[in-house]
Every structure is written in C-alpha cells, then in structure tokens.
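Researcher: We're reviewing a set of sequences before deciding which ones to prioritize for further study. For each one, I'd like a predicted 3D structure that I can look through quickly. This is Protein FAM183A. If possible, include the structure in token form so it fits the rest of the review sheet.
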Amino acid sequence: MQMKSHIGEKLVLSSQRQRCSTEVRSKSKGLQDQCPRASRGLPTSMAGAKPKTPVDIVHQNAIHCETIRKEQMSQKLYTEFSINPFKKLHVLTDKPMSRNTNEHEEEDPTFLKIIHGARLEPTKKYTHPQTESQEIGWISTPLIVPDRSDRRLNFPRQNSEITKYMDAAWRLKEQTQNLG
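Model: Here's the predicted structure for Protein FAM183A, in token form for your review sheet.
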C-alpha cells in the first residue's frame, strides 16, 4: 500500500491500525483465562494451529516401556571386565606417604598373556594380513637363500679410480665443514 502525502489519508490509515489492534486485544482477553502466555502478551499459537491436548500419562508410559524393551533386545550383559590390551597402560606410582608400598599382589597369568600378546608384531599375532597395507611385506623371509658367490644375484660395490677420488674428496669436504 502506497503512503500518500495527504493528511486525511494518514489519519484514516492510523485509525484502521488502532481498530485492528483493539480487536486483537479484545480477542486475547478471552484467551488470558485459558493460556498464561496470552496474559503476558506473548503469542499463544501459530495461525490455524489447534490448542494442545493434555499429556496422557498412560500413553507416555507405554511409549517408555516399548523403548526400554527395544533397548534390552539389543543389549549384551558383560560381567567380566578387564583392561583394554590395545591401549597404552600408564602405571602410576604410589603416593609418597602411603604405608603399603611393599605389598605385592599376585599376577594374573591370563591378563599378562593378553597384554604381552597385544604388544606382539602383526605377523606373530595373526596368520594372515588384516589390512591391505599389511599384505606388502607380510612374508619377509627371502624366497631363495642368498648366495654371495653367485654373480647373477650378487652385485658388490666396485671401486674405480674416479670413485676412489670422489670418495676422498667427499670425506675431505665433510671434515672441513665439521671443523669450521
């Protein structure tokens, strides 16, 4: 709606606004008894929304019981607890003023076996590689026995006059850098 500069039209528009606001106030007075939000001037509900029905406690209890039943179907009850052997175990020292420093408790052999087994390398823990990256180098033993006398597979380092000269030059350069 465009605002015109005539004073009469402004008065008409302002009187229409006042009339609308008084209608809203009179309607909300009836709601003040029903809804405490209306008494504070807060919006009572969205346009066209139905007022909320009171909470049915029996229905809420049935929903709660069904939720618990579903949770219990998928739960497992563990009664034996132990330390995770795959996490680092940080042993803490005793308190400085404690009196029971010399007491030694019995060692649990199954627990020690689990802890020592977790510290092993993967090839000793498992029979097959567990990941793709473990497949490379899983079998690290050589396929054939190395024979140093066989010239086909053994290529020893050979020195010529040039390699001996460069070897000496590099050693001299490293010595001068370390001294200086």
